[in-house]
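Ligand-bound model needed. magnesium ion.
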Amino acid sequence: MSSIMPGAMLGLLGGGQLGRMFTMAAQSMGYRVTVLDPSEDSPAGNIAERHLCADYHDPDALRELSATCAGVTTEFENVPAEALQFLEQHCVVSPHARSVSIAQNRMLEKQFLAANGFSVAPFMVIRNSDDLSGEINAAFFPGILKVSQFGYDGKGQVRIDAPHELMDAFASLQQQPCVLEQLLPLACEISVIVARGFDDEISLFPVAENHHSQGILDMSIIPARIPEKIAQQARKMATEVAVKLDYRGVLCIEFFVLADGRLLINEIAPRPHNSGHYTLDACITSQFEQQVRILCRLPQGDTALLTPAVMVNLLGDLWRSRELDWRKVLRNPTAKLHLYGKREARSGRKMGHFTVLAETIEQALRQAEAIKASLRND
Ligand code: ATP
Ligand code: MG
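Prediction:
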């Protein structure tokens, strides 16, 4: 199949910051972008050549997208799989509806991973209250009850210490289908971004070490400070997941590293990922440029890391209804600032990030911590 060449219009489902960064990468290579997103004001919709302001199910908008775009991709996993299925009949779509429908549903995702021999946290599926009527295996406690769909940034999750708390917790999640999983003693969390093209070519980005605060990614350290053997195993598992899913596009695999050195898959995201934002400044090719290249059936770019990096998320909480003094970031000549153009700084909302590049991880970490502290102490 032939490549989609610069000048063509690319379609994007979703208008968030991941879409904004995809749009920027596409535009810098000479493509034009049409964003489909239901909100008037969206980070990607605001910079794209066209914004179709409509629901993801809207048949007219989907028809318009398929008629005017040479290829369509997505920036968030909750696009309805039917929308992708429809588009697949008319244009190149990356990733496929099938991969997205598995990755967007925690139940299907866990079942897919377990069935294909990947290690995951011990879990049970809870579809309705009948599933809670029998004896529940004590091995799941303490545990976390997670909604199967539409959870993000730790939302839709309840910690459970004993079986008798389950019914109330399930009710608090509106009895949506859930997965109960054992709370694991984590040594650390890492992620790998893997890209797989229509020609089966695979590229892997360096392993990121991720630190969360209240269920939201706070900081990524690259390369991850883990034994090379674990990094190798993570890259191998990420490659196998992409192949088993028959994935075409950019995919993120989040892992748990346990105290005993075991590596489990936490979840997969069928798109570029927050933990891969460092690739914008620290790698030869960014995760977003790779997404463009794969969608357009072009050769993939080199994913090599140019320098150690630390990425810090800027959440809305920092703003506390004042403007921040961005000189505090930019005073450091190897710190790179990215703001997503969101007007309202709500608590927990991802407003931007900065990445510090340095010769060593320790230096990058020290500088990132200093910038973080100075932004907080305004
Ligand atoms: P996101 O989409 O932002 O990655 P999410 O809402 O899908 O987040 P998870 O990745 O499932 O949520 O969980 C968020 C964080 O909560 C994890 O990164 C980890 O720090 C912690 N966590 C989740 N599940 C477990 C577990 N079984 N054991 C220990 N910690 C866990
Ligand atoms: Mg996660």
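The CA atoms of residues 24 and 342 lie 16 Å apart.
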